[in-house]
Amino acid sequence: MTRNASNGPRMAVAPSLLLLGRECFVMLLRCHEARGPARGQGDAAGPRRRSPALPEKKGKTQMIRMKSHAQSMLPPVRAAIGVLLASWLSAAPVQAAEPATASGPVVARAGSVTVGQDDVERLLQGLPEADRAAARSNRAGIENWLRQRLASEALLREAQGKGWAERPEVKARVDAAMREISARIVASTYLESVAQLPAGYPSEPEVNAAYEGGKANFQVPASYRVAQIFLATQGSDAAATAKVRDEARKLATQARQGDFAALAKSRSQDPRGAERGGEVGALPLAQMLPEVRDTVARLKVGQVSDPVQSAAGFHVMKLLDTQAGRIATLDEIKPQLVAAMRQQRQQQLVQAYMARLVAPGAASIDTAALDAVLHKAN
């Protein structure tokens, strides 16, 4: 069960987005996840709302609060600079760039523009583990990225063919961007060299202390293992919707008296869920559509719900099992906790080094000149 695509956030693909790198790929994946497949297609009926940050792995999907806490810590210099460089590269035209050709077997093609298997593999390998796991399970998102990549390469070739890179105003923007990028790379790599962390940080006692001190933030939410029978509705035809509702009610009655899994396999219009007897997995309520959360929360194990209507159709659900909320164990969150501690400590070292370069009392600011600039900007 995913919200209708028309209700989700949309991403406008700017003409200047010529090179779709890892950051852009992740953005496209998340855009597709948020929008969801078209109504009535694939697992549009499924009750989950997936996120690349929440791959389906034990010890990760259930750590929503812990991840939120870890992400609130200051990021390392490499990540911050990487985002800035990505924004510069996407905003500046590309000068004298050779048209991309597929590396390895061709995965996608549009005319003479191709994307190779090796290109996709390199992209996936460059992603963080969580995003890589989410990408593997999001085929539609990857296909969306491939289409955008083909369009971007075709646009670049068209611009190069018209000599666009030789225009004086374009050259000026490229030169300015290259100077800025070069300066950022030099500064960021030097700063990383003087703010390196010891390989052994944090120590085991430090990790244990951080875990004990932050337990309140490491809550694993309760999860509900659910199966469903889904019937899609089309448009706003009241009579047609009423007919589907009546059919869903009949199926709910049959499911209470017979084999829910067998009925889901034969009658559910969610193909992927139907193959598994209607099972959609164990999920926290936050990952389900708002329309079904209250119903699922009230069900007892083994109980079948009345039909619940969403924008996509009607859902008859059965609660198969539940797991109570709990505090994540140290073993479950240790990799993320260590990474967060290293990020925070590195940023502290960076800030300390920058403070030594220009001490608060050593900087002289002409307030009158600054006021004049601000007034002119207004």
TrEMBL record:
Which Enzyme Commission number(s) are on file for it? 5.2.1.8
According to the UniProt entry, which residue ranges have a biased composition of type Basic and acidic residues?
267-278
Taxonomic superkingdom: Bacteria
**Region (Disordered) residue spans:** 36-62, 260-280
Q: Which residues form the PpiC domain?
A: 221-321
Top-level EC class as recorded in UniProt: isomerase
Give any GO molecular function from the UniProt entry.
peptidyl-prolyl cis-trans isomerase activity
The organism of origin for this protein: Cupriavidus basilensis
Any one Pfam family here would be Rotamase
- Name of this protein: Peptidyl-prolyl cis-trans isomerase PpiD
Give the family this protein belongs to, as stated in its UniProt record.
Belongs to the PpiC/parvulin rotamase family.
